Amino acid sequence: MKHKIADHWRRSTREVVASDFDYIDIDDVERDEDDFFMSNGHWNSGPSSWNDPEAALNQQEFWAIYETCHNNLPPKMAKVFMLRELVGLEADEVCLETGLSDANFWVTMHRARLRLRECLEIRWFNTTKKGKHHA
Amino acid sequence: MRDCRDITILISKGLDKESNLTERFAVGLHVLLCSHCRNFQTQSKFISKVAHRYTEYLEDRLGKDRNET
Q1: Which member of A41, A88, A116 has the closest CB to residue B5?
Q2: Mutation for testing the B interface, residue in A1, A37, A43, A83 having most B CBs under 10 Å
Q3: How far apart are CA A57 and CA B55, in angstroms?
């Protein structure tokens, strides 16, 4: 089943070959991280608390949002995250599969989590909070 | 003293690999005082769970697609 899921993702996202990972630009990733943190290392606009995240798991619409957020990640980042969290490979297995160095792997996962978290907050948790407020 | 950027890197690493005692202590102390990083920690764990559950959701959907074709 793991392979079937991996295949599904390979088909639905642009194919990323292992050699692409040699060119992952760490400077780009770090610059990108400045969107999340100020130069003194504090949050730019920090994560707010989410209301009843568990309830989201039972809602069909939430999975569509999750899919959108995952697909919004840059292709290489999406693949690394998929191999680690969806396929469930260990960190060193992901590095082996993608040719990423340890350091690039940690940076990529950190970045993917920051992005997914923010996307889910904007597209799901903030809107459901608003919805409840109006109700 | 580590800043929020460093702490979130440690939190993220801790989800992929067991972190050492010094790192766990630094994270634990920081999240006591910083609600943003505390939220990042809880939500990153939640996202891991979502990703696992998503595979079940996909299995379901792919199963249905197969039955329809």
Answers
A1: A41
A2: A43
A3: 12
Query: To the nearest whole angstrom, how far is the Cα of B17 from the nearest Cα of chain A?
Result: 7
For B44-53, letters b (16+ CB in 10 Å) and e give: bebbeebbee
Name the minimum distance, in Å, from the CA of B29 to any CA of chain A: 16
Structure-block tokens of residue A19: 């050699």
Question: Does residue A44 form part of some domain?
Answer: no
CATH number of the CATH domain containing A125: 1.10.10.10
Could you report the per-residue pLDDT of A98-115, keeping only the tens digit for each? 999 999 999 999 999 999
Expressed as residue numbers, the domain containing A83 is 53-130
Return the higher-pLDDT residue of A48 and B69: A48
Structural domain boundaries enclosing B61: 4-68
Specify if A93 maps to a domain.
yes
The model's pLDDT over B4-45, given as tens digits with 9 standing for 90+, comes to 999 999 999 999 998 899 999 999 999 999 999 999 999 999
Residue A25 covered by a domain: no
Give dist(CA A61, CA A85) in Å, integer. 21
Structure tokens at A83: 């191999």
Mean pLDDT of B51-69: 83
Domain count, chain A: 1
- Count of the separate structural domains present in chain B: 1
Q: What is the complex's ipTM, to 2 decimals?
A: 0.90
